Amino acid sequence: MQLSVVIPTYNEAENLPKLVSVLFSLPIQGLRILVVDDNSPDGTGQAADALAESHPARLSVMHRPGKMGLGTAYIQGFQKVLRDGAEAVCQMDADFSHPPELVLDLVNILQHCDLALGSRYVPGGSVDNTWPFWRKGLSAFGNFYARLILGLPVRDATGGFRVWRREALMGMPLERVRSNGYAFQVEMTYIACKLGYRIMEIPFYFADRKWGQSKMSFHIQREAAIRVWQLLFEYRALSPKPHQLDQSG
């Protein structure tokens, strides 16, 4: 299946060329990349344009006028690659927290599910071992909090390393999704579960970024805490829709 990788960027000039090189070295025929850049002041957009010139048939860039948020970056990116014919869509960070070599494993298990998740919280998964105790605790609690309130069956509801089948992503009501920080991942997970999508998780080690600065902030954490409760009411009428998984992959 033709895989498109959507990568939102903001100040990732150091990471992006390295990540693109690794992704294009994977044994995935026809892999394409869409970079969605929010007018990064460090020149990420220009670096992405240079990569697009080097890989004109495989990499494209969506330039946005400013820092508009993770959620809208992914939604606009998803809509574009689906219009362009993507049969599977990967979402991942640009900072190597999500190991690019694991993309192939996520694509392979997509033959048996609608959504493949890279998970920090299934056996074999973990977060950066250099993180202090409080940071590990905050990450685990945020995930537990979302799972408990929303009744989610997945172990890693807040992670952003995922591969979607085309049919599943097209069945998502993207026009209703309005979380615009890391709560976006929770909202997408909740909708997928409400729609009855088959979800599989594989473990991975979430490493802290080597270059650049983290985008996490108090505002993002506060939005996530509040949005979890709002989701209960916004999607209370959503129910599973008939869909059939193509076992041929």
- How many separate structural domains? 1
CATH 4th-level superfamily: Spore Coat Polysaccharide Biosynthesis Protein SpsA, Chain A
Q: Give a count of the beta strands, DSSP E runs of length 2 or more.
A: 9
Widest beta sheet: strand line-up: 3-2-1-4-7-5-8
CATH class: Alpha Beta
Helix content: 25-40%
Helix/strand structural class: alpha/beta
Q: Overall mean pLDDT score?
A: 90
Q: List segments where confidence is low: pLDDT < 50 over at least 5 consecutive residues.
A: 244-249
**Beta content:** 15-25%
| Proper CATH architecture | Alpha-Beta Complex
**Main sheet: strands, sense, barrel:** 7 strands, mixed
Distance between the termini: 7 Å
Order of helices and strands, N to C?
EHEHEHEHEEHEHHEEH
Can you put this structure into words, describing what you see?
By secondary structure, the protein is of the alpha/beta class. The chain has a single domain, classed as Spore Coat Polysaccharide Biosynthesis Protein SpsA, Chain A (Alpha-Beta Complex), CATH 3.90.550. Helices cover 38% and strands 16% of the residues. The chain is built from eight helices and nine strands. The strands form two sheets. It has a seven-stranded mixed sheet with strand order 3-2-1-4-7-5-8, sandwiched between helices. It has a two-stranded parallel sheet with strand order 6-9. Strand 1, helix 1 (16-25) and strand 2 form a beta-alpha-beta unit. Residues 244-249 have low confidence and may be disordered.
